[in-house]
Amino acid sequence: MATATCVVALLPIGLGALVTTLKAGMAFADWPSSDGQNMLLYPFLKDFSTRPDKFVEHGHRLAGVVIGLTAVALAFKCWPMRGWVRNFGLGILIAVILQGLLGGARVLLDAGTLAMTHSITGALFFSFCVVFRMLLSEQSAQWLATRERHLGAVGFAAGCVMPAIVLLQYFLGGMLRHLHMLRNEHIIGAIVTLMVCCWAGVSLIRGSNPALRRCGVAVVGAVFLQFSLGLGALVTRFGFRQLGYVSVTGSLEQAVLCSLHTVVGIFLVASSVSSCVWLVMLSRRGLIASTSLEMPVDTIPGGAS
To answer: pLDDT band for position 246 (50/70/90)?
Structure first.
């Protein structure tokens, strides 16, 4: 169920990114109804060729219903399991509800700032789901008992500060996408994020703990893909006069690259957050030589009691 939640969460995330790219966030002025009709009964398929903005926006709403039902099933499955598993399951359900209400408020208030916030909280929600899935892994107990011998203090610090840098860059990207501001700051932030993530990711890959190595591979892969997509999104949105390329609003390449840039950005947020979580947990167990934070094993999710 945790795996299904991560996969299903990509539906509203991907469609939400496409909604922003196509500027379809206000295709409907009402919520939770759609043009005054019940959301589940609205015939959105008829809009596929005539009103693609309504088709995509309503698809995003239906995807929100699907992830909501999945979160209910996950919470139901986790309820008999007391402790941190139950808390995570309930937390994911509450987060889905709040995310849906935030999306509705964005429509009712027609606020671009809420649209940007909705995107950021969506990235954090996906990160929450990924961390939960990793903690439920059959190898998690082994990972949480494996000492990390090769990670230095600088690598540890880079891994811990990485989520803040990535989230700041995600915020700058949201300001550019939703409010058309801070383009130069976003470009500079991309370079800084690339350097920090590469340093942290390579440090984790060179480590001895399997969980940290996996996180490092995810971080390095995501940041390079994200940087490449960012270049493509920048060109397709603002053009490249030196090469004679003129951007066309609503073009296929612009829709694809800008939307993928957002989705991969969410993967980067999730991989950086997961890396930081594992670093802190291992550090509190005294399993990282460069740190001295320690905590009893039975107080940590996934630890043996």
So the answer is: confident
* Cβ neighbours for 182, distance < 8 A, ≥ 6 positions apart: 172, 175, 176
CA angle in degrees (0–180, nearest 5) for 152-155-156? 85
Residue 126 corresponds to which tokens in the numbers above? 């996906």
- The pTM (predicted TM-score) of the whole model is 0.90
Contact (CB, 8 A) for 256 and 235: no
What distance in Å separates the CA atoms of residue 241 and residue 243, rounded to the nearest whole number? Answer: 5
Q: How many residues make up the chain in this entry?
A: 305
12: Cα within 13 Å, side-chain hemisphere = 26
Please name every residue paired with 240 in a beta bridge, in sequence order, or none if there are none: 245
- Alpha-carbon span 208 to 236, nearest angstrom: 41
67 Cβ partners below 8 Å, 6+ apart?
A: 5, 8, 9, 11, 12, 96
Q: Angle at the Cα of 77 (from 140 to 11), degrees rounded to 5?
A: 80
Q: Give the pLDDT confidence of 188-234 residue by residue, as tens digits.
A: 999 999 999 999 999 999 989 999 999 999 999 999 999 999 999 99
Q: How far is CA 225 from CA 3, 190, 220, 260, in A?
A: 23, 12, 9, 10
SS3 286: coil
